[in-house]
Amino acid sequence: MSGQTSAPAKVILVGEHAVVYGMPAIALPLSQVRTYADYQFCDHTLTVSGENSGQPSLRWSPDDKSVRDPLAAMIHLTAQFFDAREVCGKIVIRSDIPIASGLGSGAAVSAALGRAVAAILSRELSDYVLNELVYEIEKLHHGTPSGIDNTVVVYEKPVYFVKDRALEFLNIIDSLHLVVADTGIAALTRETVADVRERYQRQPGPTRNLLENIGMLTEQARIHLEAGESQQLGKLMTQNHELLQMLGVSSAPLDCLVNASIAAGAYGAKLSGGGRGGNVIALVNDSIVPTVEAALLAAGAKRIISSSITGKSASA
Predict the structure, then answer these.
(1) 69 flagged as catalytic
(2) Which of 4, 53, 101, 104 has the fewest beta carbons closer than 10 A?
(3) Tell me, which fold does domain 2-161 have in CATH?
(4) Does the pLDDT at position 96 exceed 50?
(5) Which residue in the list 38, 96, 149, 182 is annotated as catalytic?
(6) What is the 3 state secondary structure string of the chain?
């Protein structure tokens, strides 16, 4: 028995960092950029290896209860859910998602792996359960995650997310055209989240004000998104970036790509994810995608992903 499972990348359209503090955020799947898990059942204890995924190889041990490795922890959680004492097989993980770039690579690896383990066990793993399991692994990656990465990656739908509230899927009536530009600079979300938390402790009033402004902006962005009003949505994205600058999570390379996007005619642009490095997303009219791509490459982007996103999924 063999097969393949997968999970997509994601971008946060608006609301990152504020979402950790109970504000809303909007996140979208990038379905054409994925992590894959090729699985095969065999008669030896499960082994997992990585190809272009940034993941080390491991031989799973069901007796190791003190795992901190995200791969081993995901296997344990999935096996434990099914009451499985043994998992026998081979899984090879490969990924198109840049690591430490704010595109949800860790959540995608965990989701694809959990689905592969369930398949080897010939069991069904619902999205609801998988989302809960992947969230536990996100804690290893990020310390105090909001839960937005695992949610959009597992369900592969645009979501309006508020921590500890019922999940809301968004109805996008018109396609969104995004150009995603990678700075090539790795940045751990865990570190920027910790820095914002420290800032909050030092300057609670001003920091809370910034976070609340991001939250109000996100509520407005939802209205324009669901109404298909891309120009107004783009303006809010740029305002969101300015608030993230004030929060201290942007950087000169990110600002440079945002400015290049807008100068090339984008409706708006912002960093997406933890910040400091990673990616910028630009909302554009589809007719100027090549122009914006060229401007971003000229401004120093190391990789470009262009995506059209609808209410159900993302496609190239």
Answers:
(1) no
(2) 4
(3) Ribosomal Protein S5; domain 2 (3.30.230)
(4) yes
(5) 149
(6) CEEEEEEEEEEEEECCCHHHHCCCEEEEEEEEEEEEEEEEEEEEECEEEEECCCCCCEECCCCCCCCCCHHHHHHHHHHHHCCCCCCEEEEEEEECCCCCCCCCHHHHHHHHHHHHHHHHCCCCCCHHHHHHHHHHHHHHHHCCCCCHHHHHHHHCCCEEECCCCCCEECCCCCCEEEEEEECCCCCCHHHHHHHHHHHHHHCHHHHHHHHHHHHHHHHHHHHHHHCCCHHHHHHHHHHHHHHHHHHCCCCHHHHHHHHHHHHCCCCEEEEECCCCCCEEEEEECHHHHHHHHHHHHHCCCCEEEEEEECCCCEEC
